[in-house]
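Continuing the batch. This is chain 6 of the set; chains 1 through 5 are on the previous pages. Same settings as before, nothing changed between runs. Recording input and output for traceability.
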Amino acid sequence: MVEIRHRRIFIDAVVLQPGGGDPLAIVERAIRVMLRRAQRNGMYAIRAIMLDTDKLGLAPERDARIDPLARRYDLHLIWQEPCHEGLLLRHFDGCADLRPSSTERALHELARRWPDYRKGIPAVRLAERFDEAAVLRAALGNEALTCFLAEIGFAEDGSGRRRPFSR
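Output for chain 6:
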């Protein structure tokens, strides 16, 4: 949606496989991929990774290494509560404030609103399902996501001015 809107940036979205699991391992893998791709294409202007909160706390000593590592590589951490499906749920009208307590609950709530949703759905299908207003709605209450969207110019009205976010 950003590329279509203003064409000032290119988003190099990489789905890390395997997904899920230990957040520190995911951050380490993301950094390796980012550095390898940057060698080939040049350093990224903005670096971000989306992580699920449902695995936080399982290994506190590993969790404590995430923020310093992200700061070292100027990597924005965007935490999805409790998982990606929880974030997708907040794209729906009237769901901006929903915060399911577990991944299972998030999947259940999302299935109620999107019965044919399947994990790993391509970004193109997401863009067909959700418009810009839905993306901005999902970002409400997630400061890191809100900041990332502002940095990439997603919340601009086309003239360079920021649009207000609304529920």
